[in-house]
Amino acid sequence: xxxxxxxxxxxxxxxxxxxxxxxxxxxxxxxxxxxxxxxxxxxxxxxxxxxxxxxxxxxxxxxxxxxxxxxxxxxxxxxxxxxxxxxxxxxxxxxxxxxxxxxxxxxxxxxxxxxxx
Length: 117
Description:
The structure is a single chain. The protein is mainly α. It has one domain. Helices cover 85% and strands 0% of the residues. The protein has five helices and no strands. It has helices spanning 2-24, 29-37, 43-67, 73-96, 99-116. The longest helix has 25 residues, at 43-67. The protein is globular, with a radius of gyration of 16 Å. The relative contact order is 0.11.
């Protein structure tokens, strides 16, 4: 029980920090995804949970930016088909690639993004 409470507290604060960072500059998944992976959930479930939570945060931020006329809609229209296609490929990979291969790959990719950004 104590372990579950501690994990819940860690996930709460990691999610709050990730949401704050994600709404400003993006990249909140660099915080929330490793936190979710610490729970030993299946990797695909961590990815799905992370994506669902980021939809709400990104959606809220997008509405605020759009209301303030800070969205380049021409660019959005151009890039959206590619974003949808690559997102579908990524989701397919997350569901069908074994977690034993996917987890180390995600860790390496997160480290690479962290270093580059």
